[in-house]
Request: fold
Amino acid sequence: MKKEMWKSSAEKLKSVRWLAVMAIFLALRIVVSRFSIPVGVNLYFSFDFLINAICGMVLGPTAGIVFAVVEDIMSYMLFPDGYGFFAGYTLTAALGILCYAVCMYDQKQSVLKIAIAKAVSSFGINVMLGSYWTYVLTGGSKAYLYYAGKSLFKNAVLYPFQVLAIVLLVNLLIPYLSRHHFIKAQKSPMSFIA
Reply:
């Protein structure tokens, strides 16, 4: 990871324009996370991953991590769950945005980069780390592998659809984001490998 990537992303935290963009993303993420489509028992499709991907691509690692932490805390304050606030989920949110930022920020977009970012987010963070948090919060009532297995199944089923949705959205947004200098100028449709 380049040092310049972190630095240019951190500069966005000093800009009123970028703070306003972050506030819009924050509102979108909180609203979108409230809606999901059930596709099976304890299996649902939500669209909040799309906001995470665009945030990582546009905000970068530093501003993206700040966004994720603020979003997680605000979401909990607005819609508390039965477990209470848990910092592990805040870490998970920050790492999720970081995956997209590392693969997509300040560079030419490609299907492969999106697929890699989503794979690390889904399988590395959601399955491995998220399952551990569930295991901890439930007091170890079931084995870690039970939670990891359920999460692996869910993420494996949803992965291709989520990658496709991100690719379509990014392709749709590239002309607007390039024209208004939210990302480096590039053309749509994106290539498979950049």
Summary: The longest strand covers residues 36-40. The mean pLDDT is 90. Strands lie at 36-40, 43-46.
